[in-house]
Specification:
With 485 residues, this protein is α/β, with parallel strands linked by helices. 33% of the residues lie in helices and 20% in strands. The chain contains 12 helices and 15 strands.
Length: 485
């Protein structure tokens, strides 16, 4: 099959403002989402569409695709229940969404399904197809769209996981590239749409005081913790197929690491940012057995769908090295897990202690730091020391809060859907970056390292301390406002 949607030669040199105008002029004129009756549509897509309708950005047909057996009225009621459950219901916005909603039912293996979609699209020339379906169905749906003429002039959004390893990722890329050129493919990682992650990128490159110390001369280590109090929540069968490494490390956490470690992009074009992230991915040293500690919470094997002798990790801690001039010798300690002591995602960038202790005795636990709380709150803070009251030159730890966002930020799927409709690829991942990230984690996917049991409500297995360097200790996220250490 021929590749469609070739790259426009105008995009490479267009300034960001002009680029957005160019993209908006080529905005998608229909939105099609496969898997309209599924869990992802219920939890994320309907609230995002509702938000777009509320802001006046949903002036196009919305076509839900699913198996046969539903009606348009059932789909509308399904959307209503989704919004009521999310607490986002606005009657005016829902009326606008409901008026735009269409339904096409059928088997994704049946060519007739795509002919019915073609009819429902009518005069639409630039549809956006969202594949909220398992990766095993990507190739089937893509070929069905092409054979029915629904891919001409179209864009496509695909959800994670994009493959189970490097080989399957390459095979998925090959299947989608049979029909869609790379600029028309939007691989979604909802973490990149989070307000807190946007703040992280902005803070790094909008402040001149940060860059001189953002390197191995001043940074001792970087820690990233993504903790969840909840477990697998009835998804034992799914989790048996992925585990923590595939579920959140290869995508979310390596993306956050790339934003922390990348150099400033050369220009405002979205591909400038993605090119810098790719450079960081390619500089990440593939994980070896000594770099990874895996854990499993006690009781996981009792979950429905979980094997009684499962060695799938619900917790993983790793030490990542980035072989660039900026980060040579600086360890990036990353951990994530379920059934931990809190639900929080936090980055802590520890600075080196002063070369000479003129006043107090310092230790690594008392060094200055930058802290980024990425969820559930949005916080950017700086840890420093000031003099205590009294005659002696003794200090205490304080935290300077640069940004604290208590209100509800924009929904990440709202931001991502708007960008995809406008053809803006900045918050989506490229094929080369996805494959480079798989190359980093693939050596750790074979379960060669043992899985350590840990107690629910703890911070994971004690063995996780083994990958820390020097006198470092894990920094456990605490409730906001964050008390000084």
């Amino acid at each position: 099959m021929r590749s469609l949607n070739p790259t426009s030669p105008k995009l490479a040199s267009t300034p960001r403002a002009g680029l957005r105008a160019t993209m908006t002029a080529n905005r998608s004129d229909a939105f099609v989402f496969f898997g309209a009756t599924g869990d992802l549509a219920y939890r994320k897509i309907f609230p995002a569409l509702h938000a777009l309708a509320r802001s006046g950005d949903l002036d196009l047909p919305v076509i839900g695709m699913a198996r046969e057996g539903w009606s348009l009225e059932q789909l509308r009621e399904h959307a209503r229940e989704s919004l009521q459950d999310s607490g986002e219901m606005d009657q005016g916005a829902f009326a606008r969404l409901s008026a735009q909603l269409r339904y096409v039912g059928g088997d994704y293996n049946d060519p007739g399904t795509y002919q019915r979609l073609k009819h429902a699209l009518g005069d639409a020339a630039r549809p956006l197809h969202y594949l909220a379906v398992p990766p095993s169905m990507f190739a089937t749906v893509v070929r069905g769209l092409a054979n029915a003429g629904c891919a001409d002039g179209a864009r496509i959004v695909v959800e994670k996981p994009f493959g189970r390893d490097l080989a399957s990722s390459r095979e998925l890329n090959r299947a989608v590239h049979e029909v869609f050129a790379e600029p028309a493919i939007f691989r979604i990682d909802h973490y990149l749409g989070k307000e807190a992650v946007q703040n992280l990128q902005y803070f790094r490159f909008a402040n001149t005081f940060l860059d001189p110390v953002w390197n191995h001369h001043y940074v001792e280590r970087v820690q990233i913790t993504m903790a969840e109090e909840g477990g697998v929540e009835g998804r034992g069968s799914f989790y048996e197929e992925v585990g923590a490494l595939r579920d959140v490390v290869q995508n979310h956490l390596l993306q956050v690491t790339a934003l922390l470690a990348m150099d400033a992009p050369a220009g405002r074009h979205p591909d400038s940012v993605r090119a810098e992230k790719l450079r960081v991915f390619r500089a990440m040293r593939p994980l070896g057995p000594a770099d990874v500690v895996r854990g499993q919470f006690r009781g996981y094997r009792d979950e429905p769908g979980v094997a009684p002798d499962s060695d799938v990790e619900t917790f993983v801690a790793l030490c990542l090295h980035i072989d660039t001039w900026r980060w040579a010798g600086v360890p990036f300690h990353i951990r994530t897990g379920k059934r931990l002591a809190a639900t929080a995602t936090e980055v802590l960038v520890d600075l080196k202690c002063p070369a000479l202790a003129v006043f107090d005795r310092f230790s690594p636990a008392q060094s200055d730091y930058f802290r980024f709380r990425l969820g559930p709150e949005v916080v950017i803070a700086i840890g420093a020391r000031v003099k205590q009251h009294g005659e002696e030159m003794r200090g205490e730890r304080v935290e300077l809060v640069a940004r604290h966002e208590p209100s509800s930020p924009m929904l990440e799927y709202e931001r991502l859907l708007r960008d995809a409709l406008n053809g803006d690829p900045g918050l989506f991942t490229r094929d080369d970056s996805v494959e480079a990230a798989w190359q980093v984690v693939e050596p750790a996917l074979d379960h060669a390292t043992p899985v350590h049991e840990y107690e629910p409500g703890s911070w994971g297995p004690s063995a996780a301390a083994a990958i820390l360097t020097g006198a470092a200790a894990w920094h456990d996220p605490r409730p906001e406002p964050y008390p000084p250490c």
